[in-house]
Amino acid sequence: MMLPQGCSRIITLGPQGTFSDLAAQRVLLPSVSCHYVRTFAEALLEASERQDTVAVVPIENSVAGTVVPVQDALVRWSLRILGESNVSVRYGLLANVVLENAETLFAHPQAFEQTSDFQAHHLPEARPVFTDSNIDSGVRFLKEVDQPGFSGAAIVPLSFAEQNPDYLKQSDIQDYPNNTTRFLVVGSSQPEFAFDFGRTKTSMFIESSEDRAGLLYDLLSVFNRFHINLCRLESRPSKKVPWIYVFYVDFYNSSETQSCLDALSSSQFQFQILGSYDSLD
Questions:
Q1: Which among 11, 186, 239, 245 counts the fewest CB atoms within 10 Å?
Q2: pTM, rounded to two decimals
Q3: What CATH fold (topology level) applies to the domain 91-171?
Q4: Is the model's pLDDT at 61 over the cut of 70?
Q5: Per-domain residue ranges of the chain
Q6: Who's near 184: CB < 8 A, 6+ residues apart?
């Protein structure tokens, strides 16, 4: 089970019908209520402050990559990853004019990134107006569509687009057909909590006070020594010192996980375990 004992609330990006909402519904229990906010930061902050609350947020897209503000918040607000879920992302385009004549394009920043090829070919004159969510893009389009002189379009979830067939111009406009977003279930970190390395994955934040040749090699050598299979490795700027970098690592747990972590503890690296968890998929 991904929800901790005593959890009564899930916070996610709204309104109802967003991809975040779809991911949240997959872990929702009858005794738990779902609440919607306008930004990922709001969801994460509330989850960090309340032990009865978890947030469901995107961490990585198979096309656009990492959702950086979410990743950074995991460390900044000492959040704990409880589980993950993959959601297939399909977009549709609403418009009230021939696409080449669209002057305004409502889009969430992530949807805008994930449909760049389609935009380049079919929406050459459209000026992007960024929205709070993919559903918000559709809502704002429908509010404007009957206004005199409005020539616009909106990138929305395909399910939303199909509910508005009069304006549906194109289905599956994502750049890649396998477009998938990985969502995390996160909650507040509790000091007495013990991580269960019998789960599928572990995520870590790793840093070092050194900056020298071979630093990354030394780090990877520890994982290699214990035959730990990394499934994600990303470097990010340190928030403490300009031009110093930290690492985010995901790996598959094995019987050697604890030994690997013990070896890291006695090395020059400092680390924080962000979670050890299973996937719904």
A1: 239
A2: 0.91
A3: D-Maltodextrin-Binding Protein; domain 2 (3.40.190)
A4: yes
A5: 7-88+179-189, 91-171, 196-275
A6: 56, 57, 58, 59, 70, 81, 82, 83, 84
Q: Which CATH superfamily is domain 7-88+179-189 in?
A: Periplasmic binding protein-like II (3.40.190.10)
CATH classification of 196-275, choosing from 3.30.70.260, 3.30.1330.30, 3.40.50.170, 1.10.720.60? 3.30.70.260
Token pair listed for 240: 């403490």
* pLDDT for 193 beyond 90: no
Q: Kindly report, residue by residue over 126-179, the tens digit of the pLDDT.
A: 999 999 999 999 999 999 998 999 999 999 999 999 999 999 999 999 999 999
Q: Which amino acid would we find at residue 106?
A: F
Helices (H), the chain: 19-27, 40-49, 68-76, 109-114, 116-122, 134-144, 158-162, 215-225, 257-265
In the chain, DSSP assigns E strands to 9-13, 33-37, 53-61, 65-66, 79-88, 91-95, 104-107, 127-130, 152-157, 168-171, 180-188, 201-208, 230-237, 245-252, 269-279
**Given this model, what pLDDT does residue 58 score?**
97
Provide the 10 A C-beta neighbour count for residue 246: 21
What tokens does 195 get?
């991580």
